[in-house]
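Quick one: structure for this chain?
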Amino acid sequence: MSDTDEPAAKRRKLINEPGSEIDVSVRHTGIVEKFSSTNGWGFIQFEDERGTRDVFVHRKQLHSAERAPAVLPGMRVEFYLGTKVSGPQAGKQFAAHVTMLGGGRVSIKAMMEERSVGNERYTGVVKHFNVEKGF
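Got it. Here's what it folds into:
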């Protein structure tokens, strides 16, 4: 039987990591819903054949050159879906090999530079100022 005769479910490529499998046949896109840089985990919202849902993401799955990789809410990212196959989390899905759209490394620094204020000026009214403390 040739490789083309196998059902699509059996042809999908899996990467085995300790206690989990990652399906690399489909690259998903999603938007970071929330991420705690202190704890190193969060959730990405994406759509698939089952509708809109959230998937867990851990810092170790972010492809980044930064020392403490993180993502910001609202960032658009790409990822594979992984599934835990053993332990207390067996059957749960997670985002694996998370990158920026197009496959680039995740970079908070680059994202912040895009959002920087630049040379714009803003006006407003100071509501309270403590002269003794300087703020």
